Amino acid sequence: MPSTAPEAAGMTLVVHVAAAVIRGEQQRILIARRPVGKHQGGLWEFPGGKVEPGESVESALARELLEELGITVEAARPLIKIRHDYPDKSVLLDVWEVTRFAGHAHGVEGQPVAWVMPEALPGYRFPEANLPIINAARLPDRYLITPEGLTPQALLEGLARALAQGVRLVQLRAPGLDEASYRELARQALVLCQGRAWLMLKGPLHWQDEFPEAGWHLTARQLREPLQRRPGGWLAASCHSEEELRLAAEAGVDFVTLSPVQSTASHPGSPALGWEQASALLQGCRLPAYLLGGLGPQMLSRALAAGAQGVAGIRSFWPA
Ligand SMILES: Nc1nc2c([nH]c(=O)n2[C@H]2C[C@H](O)[C@@H](COP(=O)(O)OP(=O)(O)OP(=O)(O)O)O2)c(=O)[nH]1
Ligand SMILES: [Mg+2]
Fold first, then answer.
1. Does 89 contact ligand 1 (Cβ within 6 A)?
2. Does the CB atom of residue 50 touch ligand 1 within 6 A?
3. Complex ipTM over 0.90
4. Phi, psi of 105 (to 5 degrees)
């Protein structure tokens, strides 16, 4: 889509910026240091620059990466879009993940560059708008939610198979279990996931102290309760509307699920958002968001094109 950068949004001029999360060996990501004296100078950034009038974001990305790093983009996909107002400037950071490139990446303009492990990104100082980009770069594109109606044993066996297949983010959902059984299951699941995948638990917030290594997935109702963010694991939330996405952003959660995109057997009563509305909601959302509801891994590219982090799924993601 041709851009009209800077584009007029009401009275504010929004500078459209194409930026890249470039993946290299061992999943390392390339970051560069912004020259002192430029806007946000001295801070680390994901390389990129302004989209010129009439230019597509993809062309701008390719041009900027050639100019700044001397590389040719061979494959890229949308990762996240962030609209941010600095006191002196408003930007739309249109971030793409570059999965393949040719050439040796180096600071063409003399800027320092570094290949860093995704886990190390939070240790670098980036501009204020970048936190959701860092989260998006660390998170996978699939989010497995465990199916209900299984015994704890069957859940653990399925989880072990899913991990063997490379699943890296799992929500332990077992609404049929009593509290004590769920907590016992959570302890065992955490052992299985250790060093291989992030496990997101559900339940009352005061349980969190019992599971310091776990992430927490809030219900939409919990988003409306007072919340104290603890350091450590991921914090996520289930959202179904613009209002819930806003509450999630205000609560400082790291990522969300947005559902239901399509109606499903697991939630037959909930009216589906449909793709059009889901995409519109994602446009206004600056957090990494997994689309959920009747979607399988085959819907991944459609979800990415709609602006999502990826796809979350229950049955379609559960190993046979
Ligand atoms: N490239 C990049 N820009 C970012 C990031 N985070 C962030 O807030 N920005 C802001 C800083 C700038 O105001 C704007 C990007 O502009 P830029 O200075 O890179 O643009 P450019 O490469 O076209 O530079 P120039 O030729 O205009 O000097 O977006 C980021 O991670 N990467
Ligand atoms: Mg630049």
1. yes
2. yes
3. yes
4. -75, 125
Q: Which atom of ligand 1 is nearest to the CA of 68?
A: 22
Alpha carbon distance 97, 105 (integer Å)? 15
Cβ(225)–Cβ(237) below 8 Å: no
Ligand 1 pocket test: pick from 89, 93, 286 the residue with the most ligand atoms within 8 Å of its Cβ.
Answer: 93
Distance between Cα 26 and ligand 2 center (Å): 25
CB 173 within 8 A of CB 202: yes
The pTM assigned to this predicted structure is: 0.92
List the residue whose alpha carbon is closest to atom 17 of ligand 1: 49
Does 63 sit in the ligand 1 pocket, CB within 6 Å?
Answer: no
Angstrom distance (rounded) from CA 249 to CA 266 = 27
C-alpha pair distances (Å), 318 with each of 89, 186, 197, 205, 310: 45, 18, 15, 27, 16
Per-residue pLDDT of the chain (320 residues; tens, 9 = 90+): 444 444 444 557 999 999 999 999 999 999 999 999 899 899 999 999 999 999 999 999 999 999 999 999 999 999 999 999 999 999 999 999 999 999 999 999 999 999 999 999 999 999 999 999 999 999 999 999 999 999 999 999 999 999 999 999 999 999 999 999 999 999 999 999 999 999 999 999 989 999 999 999 999 999 999 887 777 799 999 999 999 999 999 999 999 999 999 987 777 777 899 999 999 999 999 999 999 999 999 999 999 999 999 999 999 999 97
**Pocket probe mutation, ligand 1, options 16, 30, 40, max atoms within 8 Å of Cβ:** 40
**Which atom of ligand 1 is closest in space to residue 64's alpha carbon?**
22
